[in-house]
UniProtKB/TrEMBL annotation:
One of its GO terms (molecular function) is carbohydrate derivative binding. The lineage of its organism: Bacteria, Bacillati, Bacillota, Erysipelotrichia, Erysipelotrichales. It comes from the Bacteria. GO terms for biological process: carbohydrate derivative metabolic process. InterPro entries: Homeodomain-like_sf, HTH_RpiR, RpiR-like, SIS_dom_sf, WH-like_DNA-bd_sf. It comes from Faecalibacillus intestinalis. Residues 4-80 form the HTH rpiR-type domain. This is MurR/RpiR family transcriptional regulator. SUPFAM superfamilies: Homeodomain-like, SIS domain.
Length: 270
């Protein structure tokens, strides 16, 4: 759960050099741990800008207000270290020194966890399911990709492939934008939800409710064994070995790459 970090870094990386909002975003990022204790006036003074500039920056970052931004930062910081443990060492972060183990040993364990996760995914996935999904993508008028930042970024390559081949795709980061698109989808459209360890629907239960109510076909790609409203989904593609581990990001990436390759083979231009 790092949405505030993604928002800030993405904004900084795509802004013009010496843009006043980007400079303020950089200053906020440098002092991110202080934000939960500051009000908008404090942040404006820290960034050498007006409170109005901070308010506009928050809207540019897809927050309704500074209060919403501050709340998201606070939540991000609370979970940051926990997420780091799950991402790197399969939710078990050894504290050095570990008896009889070197740093290389620890990273070898990490590598083996990744291989095991991918192998488990390969063994669980039915090729026929992926073919059905590829056909459903082809038959759908619009494909909406829903998820948090990482899985949305991973799905972007598939979006590019589909767009090149004439499919209408949407995959927005701002939650409100996702809601608006989902509400307008019809029974001829498709929603692909992806979440490594269920953070998407844990953080945004209202968004999953909107998806469940949608008339569109619904697919979910995740490590989680049981998801809310799963009876509303046409297909759940389960990956990985441990629903607690963010190592599953490698397996979800693998699935999206398979879908891209299969779609191109079956429906690509000669």
């Amino acid at each position: 759960m790092r949405s505030a970090f993604y928002n800030l870094i993405n904004f900084i990386n795509t802004a013009k050099v010496d843009d006043v909002y980007a400079n303020a975003a950089k200053k906020i990022l440098e002092n991110i741990n202080k934000i939960p204790e500051l009000n908008i006036t404090d942040v404006a003074e820290m960034c050498f800008v007006s409170t109005a500039t901070i308010s506009r920056l928050c809207r540019k970052l897809n927050y309704e207000s500074f209060s919403d931004f501050k709340m998201d930062v606070t939540m991000n910081l609370r979970y940051f270290n926990h997420d780091s443990m799950r991402m790197q060492f399969d939710h078990q972060l050894p504290v050095l020194p570990v008896a009889g183990k070197t740093t290389k040993d620890l990273f070898n364990d990490h590598f083996e966890n990744i291989v095991q996760n991918l192998r488990s995914t390969y063994e669980m996935i039915e090729f026929e399911e992926l073919e059905k999904l590829v056909d459903l993508i082809y038959q759908s008028n619009e494909i909406c990709f829903a998820g948090n930042f990482f899985t949305q970024s991973v799905s972007m390559q598939l979006q590019i492939e589909l767009s090149y081949l004439g499919k209408k795709c949407t995959g927005m980061y701002p939650l409100q934008s996702q809601k608006e698109v989902v509400r307008d989808l019809t029974g001829n459209d498709l929603i692909i939800v992806s979440s490594i360890a269920g953070g998407y629907w844990q953080d945004h239960p209202d968004m999953l409710r909107e998806i469940a109510k949608s008339r569109a076909h619904k697919i979910c790609i995740t490590q989680v064994e049981n998801i809310p409203y799963q009876e509303q989904f046409d297909m759940i593609i389960q990956v990985g070995t441990d629903h607690l581990s963010l190592i599953g990001k490698f397996s979800i990436t693998y699935i999206f790459e398979l879908l891209e390759a299969l779609y191109h083979i079956k429906y690509g231009r000669v």
